[in-house]
């Protein structure tokens, strides 16, 4: 899904084999356009789970995790979520100083999504979320997470809990020095190999019902390296 929120990304921004899925979005504001896009994604995720598959969705931002989760719920699963990210994504519209909705994705999954999004998403209980890494937190996020029931862990210790899981991986969890061109780079993180090993470990548990990969990077840079990384992560 070559989109960053409702913005169509240039060809080749997500260097994967095969054809990208590029639905036409209606005119209107961000929420109307995301509503249409995400309803399509949730429906396709549910269809593939019902067919016995484990769908993988690759896009340009973390909000895409919401329809992936909604699709798993539509298919009858009641999943936990494992969320790999250099950031907390734990802002609300009220706490965010930038207004960037991608930084609210996890809180939206926990029940803070605006009504205008229109997605039939059952809010996740905090105790059903594992936040992996999240080394770059704004003060409001740190304050929220300090008292939340969300489990915090490192990449090295990440593991699937019991029951069905939706796995979300924002590739900026990788140390910025190993993945040039990120929109929101953060240094001091785990290596590419450590992240790939942790993701494959969770996938190999057999408990992941749907897998979402966010590629928040500037298009047209380092494509060979990015293609290899996506093949390793999703293969």
From TrEMBL:
<dbReference type="InterPro" id="IPR006035">
    <property type="entry name" value="Ureohydrolase"/>
</dbReference>
<keyword id="KW-0479">Metal-binding</keyword>
<protein>
    <submittedName>
        <fullName>Arginase family protein</fullName>
    </submittedName>
</protein>
<dbReference type="Pfam" id="PF00491">
    <property type="entry name" value="Arginase"/>
</dbReference>
<dbReference type="GO" id="GO:0005829">
    <property type="term" value="C:cytosol"/>
</dbReference>
<keyword id="KW-0464">Manganese</keyword>
<keyword id="KW-0378">Hydrolase</keyword>
<feature type="region of interest" description="Disordered">
    <location>
        <begin position="1"/>
        <end position="21"/>
    </location>
</feature>
<feature type="compositionally biased region" description="Basic and acidic residues">
    <location>
        <begin position="1"/>
        <end position="10"/>
    </location>
</feature>
<dbReference type="GO" id="GO:0004053">
    <property type="term" value="F:arginase activity"/>
</dbReference>
<comment type="similarity">
    <text>Belongs to the arginase family.</text>
</comment>
<dbReference type="InterPro" id="IPR023696">
    <property type="entry name" value="Ureohydrolase_dom_sf"/>
</dbReference>
<dbReference type="GO" id="GO:0030145">
    <property type="term" value="F:manganese ion binding"/>
</dbReference>
